[in-house]
Amino acid sequence: MFTGIVEEIGEVTAVEQLTNAARLRVRGPLVTGDAGHGDSIAVSGVCLTVVEVAGGEFTVDVVNETLQRSSLAKVAVGDRVNLERATPAGGRLGGHIMQGHVDGTGVFLGRDENGVTTFALPSHLSRYVVEKGSIAVDGVSLTVAAITGEQFAVALIPTTLEVTTLGRREPGDLVNLEVDVVAKYVEKLAEAHIRDQVHNRDGGTEERS
């Protein structure tokens, strides 16, 4: 579990293409300070399992499912990535509850002089995004300032622009998106109730044991 408070900006130092997967090596002196084999580190919002740690760098394997859903499919040596270690039990929840399970990619559209930053998001995710709700962009916990159709805006403070990769984004760049998991659970739990209501309204009968 993560909270979307980026601990440091790391650098991809190696990319190895495997069969239906990729192996990445990332430099992150802070997050590797207490990391070991099997630990979880979020790389630009993607929860990955540490395979090896050496010299301030860690290695992770990225499976095909993750490559298809995230921007890591296009990552290259020298790219900067946001890094966050898994939150310990009893740790501070500085952002919001995040799983590191990316739902899809969005597109950075632009930022105005006040730091208001706009992104495009896939249509199938727009229903989970609400004004003043939470969303993770490249692993950064953000509050939605506005949503219009398939675009949403967030207000980024100078600190966020400085200590995360969001300050380096250019129009057209892909970003990883993770919507609020609570919204997805509510939708799933409500589906059966809504279906029953429609069935009963249309004259169906409900069998009870």
Describe the structure.
With 209 residues, this protein is α+β, with helices and mostly antiparallel strands. Helix content is 16%, strand content 39%. It has three helices and twelve strands. The chain has helices spanning 64-69, 158-163, 181-201, and strands at residues 8-18, 21-27, 40-43, 46-54, 57-63, 80-85, 104-111, 116-120, 134-137, 140-148, 151-155, 174-179. The strands form two sheets. The chain has a six-stranded antiparallel barrel. It has a six-stranded antiparallel β-barrel with strand order 7-8-11-10-9-12. β9 and β10 form a beta hairpin. The longest helix has 21 residues, at 181-201. It is globular and about 65 Å long. The model has no long low-confidence stretch (mean pLDDT 92).
Question: Can you lay out the helices and strands and say which pair or pack?
Answer:
Layout: E1 8-18, E2 21-27, E3 40-43, E4 46-54, E5 57-63, H1 64-69, E6 80-85, E7 104-111, E8 116-120, E9 134-137, E10 140-148, E11 151-155, H2 158-163, E12 174-179, H3 181-201
Antiparallel strand pairs: 1-2, 1-6, 2-5, 3-4, 3-6, 4-5, 7-8, 7-12, 8-11, 9-10, 9-12, 10-11
